[in-house]
Amino acid sequence: MGARGPRRLSPDPTRPHPTVHSSATMDSPELYHVKQQFTLGAYKSLVDLTLPEPDSPDYTPTLVYQARAHLALGNTSAASSLIPAGTENVALRAVAALVRYVDAEADAAKEAERDAALEQLRDLCIEIEGDDEDATEWEKGTVRVLAGTAFARAGEVEEALETLGAGTDTRNLEAVAYTVQIYLSISRPDLARKEFERAKRWAEDDLLLQHIEAAIGLATGRDAYADAHAFFTEQLANPSLTSPRLLTARGVTRLLRGEISAAKSDLEEARAQMGGKPDAETLGAETVAAGLGAAKTTEADQLFSQLSTEHPGFPLVIELERKAHLFDELAAKFVVPPVAAV
Asked: What's the whole-model pTM score?
């Protein structure tokens, strides 16, 4: 890591959080733990938590994070079942709209449902700006984050960035995190770092801020990926947290550092924690790791076949298919000259 990195949080999940993502009040220890699990990808543990009583101030935030965790696990029906029917809460309505969008995302026949969900999120973004809206700042910030997430997934990058408040002095750290991810996805790490530096002025040692720094470091290779490696390793040492996604993240970091054996160990453990059914990121990393080993082409081919079948939209699959198509086009234009007569 550089000469001076951000101060690290205690792994104690009961420690009250010194800053919050879009609210002026301090989180309760229970809500801080919920946010910690979501931030670090411990989705299975999060969805297994018992919801607070409906009259608790933690009820709505916990429900929102649980629904988002179900989405991350690919379980849209479970996410939908959490949302109370007929709710007037803007954050819960935004979650419901995002669930409907994700549910229709992979089905070409559900274009109308996707468009309707996006329109509802646009309407909610307008609604929270009204003078009569009595939603809390956290609820308004959540609407923007969930809407920005859907817009980005729909390919509406400019709309997503505007909704998330890119380039502004927003104090919604989740919005900053998603903005950074969008910039990294379009190869603009310079703009991602600007968002991070702006957030550093007020977010101090927030766990999510450290995660943002690790993501930028992972994308840019700064200091030989030291920030990312240190962050993931520290969080994995937390005895109260089980997150296969952290293992995958460190495995990817180790691949980039050339630590192939250690990377494979992380990925194998991540697969085991996922019950032998790795998610797209883990399977993609396993494919790359297998391709880097000596005489492992058969294993790499098998893993890539599985990846392309189960996750045809994964960036590695799309890019390799694009390159293969380009190669075929160029090969078709190449004319082999006749053999010269002797």
From this structure: 0.86
